[in-house]
Each structure stands twice: as C-alpha cells, then as structure tokens.
Amino acid sequence: MSIYFKFNPEKAVEAAAEFLKLRGKRPMKYLGLIKQLYTADRIAFERLDQPITGDSYVSMKYGPVLSNVYDLIKGLGDESDRDIWSKYIKTLHDDYKVFLKGDPGINNLCRAELKIIHEVYEKVGHLDDFELAEKTHKEFPEWQNPLPNAKVLPIHVEEILKNVGKSDEEIEEIQKKVEKEDYLDYLLNV
C-alpha cells in the first residue's frame, strides 16, 4: 500500500508566500518556487516524517514537481484550493512567474517548517531556476527523467522516504500514522 498525505492548500500557500517574502516580494519564476517547495517538503520528510504541503509528487523534464501546486499555478485544480491560492499569489503566465498579492500569514506553519523554508531559501534561493532544476536532478535520486516516453512519472512518498534515509520499519510506522490520521479525519467529517 502506498502512503498518501492530504494536500493542505493553506500550508502550501503560506510556504510559497514565505519563499516569495524571503525573495523580497519580487516575482519569482514558478520553476524555482516549485523546486524550493519540493526541497522543503523533502527535508520535512527527513526531519518531521511528513511534508509541509501534503502534495503529491511527479517527475517532469525539469525535475520533481508538486502536482497540486503546479495545477494551482496553472489555474487548475479544486476550485476552493484555487480560491485560496489566487487570493494571495498571482501567476504571470507570459513570464512564467508568480508574485505575492497579499500576505497569508504563517498560522498553519510550525516553527520547524518555517526553519526548513528559511534554510532552503538560504541554500538555494540565489540559484538560477535551471541551476536549481539541475541540482534536483543530481541530488534527488527519486527523480527520473520521464522523457521520451512520458511527460510525467509519479514519485511515490516511499521513494522519497527511503532516499532521505528512512528504514523500512520507519516507513511502515509513518504509513500507519497517516492511515490513523486519515481515519480520524473521516470520523470527524462524517
């Protein structure tokens, strides 16, 4: 059985906004934003056993991508998620950039997640988008080039967890915890 986290659009917006604030609120190429968010989620898997955004991941030509965030940037996805995203972040499609329209705050991000975001920005925020994409190709073995046969390939959470050093036993415990949380969410929302 695979591990699936529930996408959290509020946290995704807050994390994206934090990267944009660190940049000085200047527009950012969305390729760079997606790579920084992926890197932050990956570090959160290592340190916290769960991602910041809860997104699902795919391999694309320019590296690993957060599927739901990419859809939101393109104006796709769940309508309520799009509303949350577009309230604070605007996409400039002609320039492949995003910019911060308003500050969503950081109410959904814990200190450890904010620390990860700041560390990622400090480490790679200065890189050109394509340098950052190349870095993800080299450093993240879960990324597989989907070309020439496909545009995207799924990246399973278990692959990420293994590549950040989690043992099979730790992965099994993470899976049990996620299943328990999903069940509790189900019971609370019935």
Describe this structure in words.
- The structure is a single chain.
- By secondary structure, the protein is mainly alpha-helical.
- The two termini are 24 Å apart.
- It has a 3-stranded antiparallel sheet. The protein has a 3-stranded antiparallel sheet with strand order 3-2-6.
- It has one domain.
- The model has no long low-confidence stretch (mean pLDDT 94).
- It has helices spanning 9-22, 30-48, 67-73, 79-88, 111-124, 129-139, 157-163, 168-188; strands at 28-29, 57-60, 63-66, 89-92, 97-100, 153-155.
Index terms:
8 helices; 190 residues; mainly alpha; 11% strand; three-stranded antiparallel sheet
Walk me through the topology.
Elements lengths: L8 H14 L5 E2 H19 L8 E4 L2 E4 H7 L5 H10 E4 L4 E4 L10 H14 L4 H11 L13 E3 L1 H7 L4 H21 L2
Antiparallel strand pairs: 1-5, 2-3, 2-6, 4-5
Q: Which shape, going by the Cα principal axes?
A: globular
As for the number of domains, it is: 1
Chain-averaged pLDDT: 94
Written as H for each helix and E for each strand, in order along the chain, the element string is: HEHEEHHEEHHEHH
- Unreliable runs, pLDDT <50, ≥5 residues? none
Estimated structural class: mainly alpha
Rg of Cα set = 16 Å
As a percent range, the share of strand residues is: 5-15%
Please describe the biggest sheet, giving its number of strands, its sense, and whether it closes into a barrel. 3 strands, antiparallel
Largest beta sheet: what is the strand line-up?
A: 1-5-4
How many beta strands in the DSSP annotation?
6
Termini separation (Å)? Answer: 24 Å
